[in-house]
Specification:
Blueprint: H1 3-34, E1 36-42, E2 55-58, E3 64-66, E4 72-79, E5 81-88, E6 95-102
Antiparallel strand pairs: 1-4, 2-3, 2-5, 5-6
Amino acid sequence: MTHRVRGAFGRLAAAAFATVLASALFAGSLAAQGSTGKIEGTVTDQAGVPIANAQVFIVGTSYGALTSDKGYYFINNVPAGEITLRAQFIGYAPTEKTGVRVLAGQ
């Protein structure tokens, strides 16, 4: 093989490898989207007043968020299935909600 043919073959092989790698990464991200969901809500006190900066997390995991000044929170990429949510803030008793169902893609 001449130098020119080897160079062209190398570029073609590199392009093919890059295409396969990109396809695999894209397919992996689509698969991950299909098995996770999102949790969102609002944390309020007994009078219905939003609680800012409350901690909301999924028990037994590292997934969590802080509420906004309006008590709103969201947690992305939560594995699908049933979970237990816990909200806590200084001065209030922690509250848990069990049996929260997370649907994939929602």
